[in-house]
Amino acid sequence: MESTDLYSVKQRFFLGAYKSLVEQSLPDESSEDYVPILFYKARAHIALGDTETVTSLIPEDTENLALKAVAVFANYISSPTGDAALEELRDLCVEIEGDDVDASEREKGWVRVVAGTAFARASEVEEALETLGAESTTENAEAVAVAVQIYLSIHRPDLARKEFERAKQWAEDDLLLQLIESSIGLVIGKDSYLDAHSFYTEQIANPSVSSPHLLTARGVTRLLRGEVQEAKSDLEEAVAQQGGQDDAETLAARVVAAGLGTKRGDAEELWSQLASAHPEHPLVTAVNGKAVEFDDLAIRFKVPPLAIPTC
């Protein structure tokens, strides 16, 4: 049975309330919650782009394999190539399969989640899914959540739905399961995105977990529902909560919202910001790819001669 403190930490992490999580003090090292809370707090720092703090949070000589995985993941994010870090994560995945490994089943699951996330970021999709135990009997809700995101990113909502339905057979109807369902609903447009909209609205109403991440998610949902002005309101509030700074997802959503409006200049300005600050964002790479295709087709297109009247 999880403590109230650990449940709250996990809830905030899953819903993207990273700022409040990194500001929380760690329990005493003798507490059973120390390692789990440190694990999620370190990952929250990584989510905020602060990999340096992870080095100071996790002792270099830690024997805990889950904490080791997080430290290696932070190195991967901050490294130009990350190949060495990926190899370390592969070694950890092999180590947790040993008969004499000093790690609980929960900690082994954490290693798989962190490693699978890193492999997915490195575009090693098959390895990521295998590590996460996709399409297997593994009962790890966090691993399912990451696998679902991978399937959605490669345009396979059918497989994402299959993972979700499998998880429903053994997972409790908890927050993470609802979040998974909402993510799938955003992609397939179930019930005009009503389930996702209702879920995000419910969570935003809870001040302990409300975050710019949730506001952006509801803003995207509202864009998909055609509620452009309401979406802009959510996105502006998300920016305000981030101290006037956009993260990549909020900025991308604002680009789309501005493009649906009448002020062309606003859309172009936001697009320039996104392309400059986040050149690897999926929206930027997709639009740039279409621009290259258009230029290639334009070069090959031959304008037919004008028709000349015969009489």
TrEMBL record:
Location of this chain's protein in the cell: Cytoplasmic vesicle, COPI-coated vesicle membrane; Golgi apparatus membrane
Membrane topology per record: Peripheral membrane protein
Cellular component terms per the entry's GO annotation: COPI vesicle coat; Golgi membrane
Major localization listed first in the record, in broad terms: membrane
Record's keyword terms, sorted: Cytoplasm, Cytoplasmic vesicle, ER-Golgi transport, Golgi apparatus, Membrane, Protein transport, Transport
Gene3D superfamilies found in the cross-reference section: Tetratricopeptide repeat domain (1.25.40.10)
Tree of life domain: Eukaryota
Gene Ontology BP term (one): endoplasmic reticulum to Golgi vesicle-mediated transport
GO MF, one example: structural molecule activity
UniProt similarity note: Belongs to the COPE family.
Matches recorded under PANTHER family: COATOMER SUBUNIT EPSILON (PTHR10805:SF0)
Name of protein: Coatomer subunit epsilon
